[in-house]
Design goal:
Elements lengths: L9 E5 L7 H11 L3 E5 L2 H6 L2 H8 L2 E2 L7 H15 L3 E6 L5 H4 L9 H24 L3 E11 L13 H23 L2 E7 L5 H4 L4 H11 L7 H12 L10 E4 L10 H5 L5
Parallel strand pairs: 1-2, 1-4, 2-3, 4-5, 5-6, 6-7
Helix pairs in contact: 1-3, 1-10, 4-6, 6-7
The structure holds nicotinamide-adenine-dinucleotide.
Length: 271
């Protein structure tokens, strides 16, 4: 269903790797709602994924950029404005990666070079993206910037490893930069805290199957899907949420306010 919520709006979408990616679903929904955008991902992801299909489907151009490289980001922002014919209204940061998680290093046995790398990719990149946009004065007034996060920033999920710390940092950057972007450019900055979702990044977390099944049983509305996340992001890019900013918004079927549910209790009841 389309409501034309993003008619005439222009943006940049980071992080569509394959059709399971939250950014992929978001690009499809933004396209349906009338938005136009540039797709971007790390050069290596271009070879691994299938972003070309998405570009074709949505009539978008692709500009490769490593989100940790200021040079790449400068190029991305300038070229996006050329392609889209003016300043930008929306940006989705949908990027996450922990080398410690990938290589199975425990939280209590970090390789700190890897910790640094993961922090740069997953959190500091959000600052770099915003600083590049801010300095280039690339955002239109009443524009909207969204990054994706997970509740391990607030509560302990042992296997989420150093990504928990990266997400806490990411959410803090959203508030800190959101202040300056709001004050100086009338642009809003929020994070969406999404349910566990079966994507490449999600499934990289140890014990993901148990993780997602538990969250499903705990949440009165069940886990939010990638499509649910895409729909929520569309509302945040639209003009209907102009004064929502500096927020960490839970899109999780109610999980974050639960203590226990009947479905979870059942597993512990003695007959
Ligand atoms: N899947 C989940 O369970 C879940 C839950 C909450 C939040 N999130 C967050 O959603 C976001 C999107 O992840 P996803 O689940 O769609 O997985 P995904 O693997 O499809 O997307 C992650 C993306 O990050 C990109 N990336 C990695 N390094 C990069 C770099 N240096 N420069 C630019 N891009 C880079 C990858 O190429 C990939 O496209 C992430 O921030 C993730 O932490 C995911």
């Amino acid at each position: 269903m389309s409501y034309n919520l993003l008619k005439g709006k222009k943006g940049i979408i980071f992080g569509a790797l394959d059709e399971n990616s939250i950014a992929w679903k978001t690009a499809e929904r933004v396209h349906e709602e009338g938005g136009t955008f540039v797709l971007t991902n790390a050069p290596i992801a271009m070879r691994m994924g299938s972003i070309n299909q998405l570009a074709e489907k949505t009539g978008s151009e692709i500009i490769p950029a490593d989100a940790t490289s200021i040079e790449d980001l400068d190029n991305l922002v300038q070229k996006s404005m050329d392609i889209l014919g003016g300043k930008i209204d929306f940006v989705l940061h949908s990027i996450g990666m922990s080398v410690n998680v990938r290589k199975g290093r425990a939280y209590t046995d970090q390789n700190y070079d890897w910790t640094h790398k993961g922090m740069d990719v997953s959190a500091l990149s959000f600052h770099k993206v915003m600083q590049t946009l801010y300095k280039a004065d690339a955002m239109n007034e009443w524009g909207s910037i969204v990054a994706l996060t997970y509740m391990a920033a607030q509560r302990v999920f042992p296997d989420y490893n150093d990504m928990a710390d990266n997400k806490a940092y990411l959410e803090s950057i959203a508030r800190s930069f959101g202040y300056f972007f709001g004050r100086d450019k009338k642009v809003r900055v929020n994070t969406i805290s999404q349910s566990p979702t079966p994507t490449t990044a999600g499934q990289g977390v140890k014990g993901f199957d148990g993780f997602i099944a538990y969250a499903e049983k705990m949440s009165p509305l069940g886990n939010a899907t990638a499509l649910d996340c895409a729909n929520y992001t569309v509302t945040l890019f639209s003009d209907l949420t102009r004064r929502v900013t500096l927020q960490n918004l839970f899109n999780d079927g109610g999980f974050s306010n639960m203590g226990v549910s009947d479905a979870v209790m059942e597993g512990f009841m003695e007959e």
